[in-house]
Amino acid sequence: MRASQLFCNDASHWSESADRLERAGLVFYFGTRQMLADGAIYDSLRRRFPEAHVVGCSTGGQLAGTDVSDDMACALALDFDATTLRVISVDIVGAGNSRAIGRAIGAGLKGAGLAGVFILSDGLHVNGSALVEGIVDEVGRGVPVSGGLAGDGADFVETLVGCDGPPVSNAIAAVGFYGDAIRIGHGSAGGWDVFGPMRRITRADGNVLYEVDGKPALDLYKLYLGPEESRNLPGSALLFPLRIFDPRHPERSVVRTILSVDHDTGSMTFAGDMPAGWSAQLMRGNFHRLCAGAAEATQRAVRGAEPGPGAQSAAIFVSCIGRRLLMGQRIEEEIEAATAELSERCLPVGFYSYGEISPDEESGFCQLHNQTMTVTVLTEEAA
Predict the structure, then answer these.
(1) How far apart (Å, rounded) are the C-alpha atoms in residues 128 and 369?
(2) Is residue 152 within 8 Å of residue 134, measured between CB atoms?
(3) If both were cysteines, with which of 58, 93, 162, 266 could 218 make a disulfide (CB 3.0 to 4.6 Å apart)?
(4) Cβ neighbours of 287 (radius 10 Å)
(5) pLDDT in single tens digits along all 383 residues of the chain
(6) SS3 state of residue 284
(7) CA distance 300 to 291
(8) Chain centroid, CA 275 distance in Å
(9) DSSP characters for 82-142?
(10) Residues 6+ apart with CB under 8 A from 169
(11) What is the 8-class DSSP label of residue 235?
(12) Peptide bond into 216 cis (omega under 30)
């Protein structure tokens, strides 16, 4: 496998890393909604790599080298020696159809030699956990699924996903990797601390949370945020995600973050399922633990891929927009901690998302995470 990074401030010109590729089979790209909306970024990559699958999404900021940028789009071009690719694009109509759409994606990708799936999904109109469950229903738990939900900074207006065409809203792109040569490593870690009393989800429908302890869910957040920050919902709620878990299996907890709020009903829409009867507890960030979690996730992904000595590899980082909002100007500390775990032959790209998809570190089950740093490392075994 060969890889190259590309960066641009202007769609008419991309700067490329020293190991410039003449051709590529797959190109990932990431940029803000404003950068991607007119399709010029996609068009320029299509001209540069006419034979490649070109897949990308809008973000809450992207990784430009080892810096976080809102002004520079980034891309990763990959040229495989012995790996076959299959790419699928689907439209999503309402979060309620997420599991069925996931099954359709999984049915389109499953087959002999499927080694892994990478997903980029609309970030506002999907139930991410149901989407992943639908994919796993078809491909099986033995096939790792990773990726993320597209972002729109702290605006929550529209997210865009492109798959061999200009990026659009309400879309999902999926890439399947096939063969014995491809090696895919995964890692995910949080770094948030729980606080406050344990609560119980008493009324919910899919990813819409209506009541906690019999009271409107939105009132809980307004209580902790105060009048000033409550006016900035849903963005301000990203600083206080919820840890939820089935009381029968407290070790299998997941973190959920907010996509939208409804002041009339007092409800909150999260990126994944909020099952009634589950326990919930508020969380807040710890700078040191967030950076340590990013490094730990990268270590796990590198170990999982096991790049050979001198082998080219690539790392795709997907981190939650909530982590960026919390860390502010210190966000580059997270990236430095993560990229320090990579070899010189591993090229990093990535973006800040509305949800991260990766196998769980304890159960191994692929699922939607929130407020995590997830890492996917790709390489090929030498022939």
Answers:
(1) 9
(2) no
(3) 266
(4) 14
(5) 999 999 998 777 888 877 789 899 999 999 999 999 999 999 999 999 999 999 999 999 998 777 888 889 999 999 999 999 999 999 998 888 999 999 999 999 999 999 999 999 999 999 888 999 999 999 998 999 999 999 998 888 999 999 999 999 999 999 999 999 999 999 988 777 888 889 999 999 988 999 999 999 998 888 878 888 888 888 777 778 888 988 888 777 788 888 888 989 999 998 788 999 999 998 877 778 888 888 999 999 999 998 888 889 999 999 988 788 777 777 888 889 899 999 989 999 999 999 899 887 666 666 777 678 899 999 998 65
(6) strand
(7) 15
(8) 22
(9) S-EEEEEEEE---GGGHHHHHHHHHHHH-STTEEEEEEEE-SSS--HHHHHHHHHHHH-TT
(10) 122, 125, 158, 159, 160, 161
(11) G
(12) no
The pair of structure tokens assigned to 98 is 């997420």
- Which tokens belong to 69? 């940028």
Answering whether pTM is above 0.90, one says no
Q: Which residue has the tokens 């902790």?
A: 224
DSSP string, 137-203: HHH-TTS-EEEEE--BTBT-S---EEESS--BSSEEEEEEEESSSEEEEEEEE--EEE-S--EEEEE
Whose structure tokens read 């606080």?
Answer: 195
Give dist(CA 185, CA 180) in Å, integer: 14
Which two structure tokens, joined as six digits, stand for 130? 């149901």
